[in-house]
Task: inverse folding
């Protein structure tokens, strides 16, 4: 084995930082959008009209039973045939949102299902509509219950985002692939990128835990 | 007097209700006048809760009719909302919203349903919680309150919507014995202030002393009804005599 030389990465520091920022931003934005989709999906599954619940159930099954990379390829390479052409970044964002949307639908639904029937009835008895009860009574405790599961899923999506390098979206993994194709320092570059993903996971886990404690205080 | 003034506040006419093959309410009729305190008693499974829950539409019924203050109890969400503006309910299990403080529990429906502003919400919360003797617990979460205090918050929460009638389903049954009285005292005060109450209860002494009318349910029917003191002293049917005797 030849000698390790991490300094060989220095000329590519910019590419790494840009890739890292892309990964972080992509994760943040698709997490927000994905949880919004999941919340609406969970509403449809638990309290919405029958047809909407059925539609969401089908969506969840399709996404959970197909590989993420195929979903991504379908959106980026498949949709243009249907006249929808997206940039690499938009396709990556859409694929991750749809993916997290499906998983978080199921996670949030579990939290809603755990709501005691009495809380619904108390809300309804106070002349709130079903939607108002969902929004003001059910949602916060449900999120609190499933926050750890949701946090794990967000991390999984962040790690899974490395796949978007396959459609040339310029994320952290894309940067790594690019650098090692130039300087052939595969060990150094993937070692560093592995460490970066690890640090990112740890930081996100801590941030999500802190956010959870703030949004859903223990009482 | 016009007919509207003589009309009972709650009119229940020949209600029938089945759960699958089991007929739980077998033709119940009952009138409740403004200011009445109706105590419903009866064995477990006789249909007391089901009857109470049909009055605010938490339970549907198969035939018959119910109206509250002229508002008929019928299906749709809009109609139910209008009905529930007039009917408050307090539950055996309190059902406070765990993520909200006592004050927020009380102010939520005024905020969401009536569009009350922040100042009005705070005033309502304080006024209602003071009424149930919890003026010092505004900021407490349900988990920081005793069972008796939680149930009083639940009463304050129902009162915040200024209902015309308050339904109470065994509201002291989940409480430790030493906490029962603080809740019953609040209900007694409400009765004295003229609130119309329909209570399902196992507190026989309370039913006798505070109730203006006693309803004994048996196998899904009103088996006997009348003045509480008279009926407790001298039940008109062997079933009520036996029930009163078994409760003691
Ligand atoms: N949602 C339901 N589905 C099926 N059966 C039900 C349902 N709710 C109540 N029942 C049945 O209806 C009957 C009357 O129940 P209800 O709760 O009205 O009785 P109750 O008089 O309030 O009794 P308790 O004193 O135990 O509270 C019981 O046999 C009960 O098992
Ligand atoms: Mg009952």
Result:
């Amino acid at each position: 084995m030849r000698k390790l030389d991490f300094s060989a990465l220095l000329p590519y520091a910019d590419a790494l930082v840009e890739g890292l920022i892309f990964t972080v931003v992509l994760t943040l934005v698709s997490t927000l959008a994905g949880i919004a989709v999941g919340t609406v999906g969970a509403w449809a599954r638990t309290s919405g009209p029958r047809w909407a619940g059925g539609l969401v159930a089908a969506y969840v099954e399709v996404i959970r039973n197909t590989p993420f990379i195929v979903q991504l390829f379908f959106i980026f390479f498949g949709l243009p045939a249907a006249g929808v052409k997206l940039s690499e970044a938009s396709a990556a964002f859409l694929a991750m949102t749809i993916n997290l949307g499906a998983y978080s639908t199921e996670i949030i639904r579990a939290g809603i299902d755990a709501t005691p029937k009495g809380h619904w009835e108390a809300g309804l008895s106070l002349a709130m509509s079903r939607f108002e009860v969902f929004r003001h009574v059910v949602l916060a405790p449900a999120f609190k219950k499933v926050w750890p599961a949701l946090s794990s899923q967000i991390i999984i999506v962040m790690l899974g985002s490395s796949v978007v390098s396959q459609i040339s979206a310029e994320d952290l993994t894309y940067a790594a692939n690019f650098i090692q194709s130039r300087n052939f320092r595969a060990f150094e570059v993937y070692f560093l990128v592995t460490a970066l993903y690890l640090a990112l996971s740890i930081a996100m886990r801590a941030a999500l835990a802190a956010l959870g404690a703030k949004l859903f205080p223990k009482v | 007097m016009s007919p509207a003034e003589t009309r009972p506040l709650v009119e229940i006419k020949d209600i029938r209700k089945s759960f699958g093959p089991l007929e739980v309410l077998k033709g119940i009729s009952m009138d409740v006048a403004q200011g009445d305190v109706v105590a419903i008693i009866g064995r477990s499974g006789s249909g007391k809760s089901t009857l109470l829950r049909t009055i605010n539409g938490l339970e549907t019924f198969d035939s018959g009719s119910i109206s509250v203050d002229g508002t008929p109890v019928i299906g749709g969400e809009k109609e139910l909302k209008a009905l529930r503006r007039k009917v408050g309910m307090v539950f055996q299990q309190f059902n406070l919203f765990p993520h909200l403080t006592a004050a927020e529990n009380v102010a939520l429906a005024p905020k969401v349903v009536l569009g009350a502003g922040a100042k009005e919400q705070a005033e309502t919360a304080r006024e209602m919680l003071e009424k149930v003797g919890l003026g010092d617990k505004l900021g407490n979460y349900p988990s920081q309150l005793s069972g008796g205090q939680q149930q009083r918050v639940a009463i304050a929460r129902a009162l915040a919507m200024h209902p015309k009638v308050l339904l109470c389903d065994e509201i002291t049954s989940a409480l430790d014995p030493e906490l029962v009285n603080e809740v019953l005292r609040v209900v007694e005060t409400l009765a004295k202030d003229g609130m119309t109450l329909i209570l399902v209860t196992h507190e026989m002494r309370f039913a006798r002393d505070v109730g203006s009318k006693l309803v004994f349910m048996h196998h899904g029917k009103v088996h006997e009804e009348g003045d509480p003191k008279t009926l407790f002293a001298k039940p008109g049917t062997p079933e009520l005599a036996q029930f009163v005797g078994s409760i003691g």
Observations:
- Helices of chain A lie at 13-47, 50-64, 68-78, 88-113, 117-125, 130-160, 172-183, 186-215.
- Chain A touches chain B through 21 residues (CB under 8 Å).
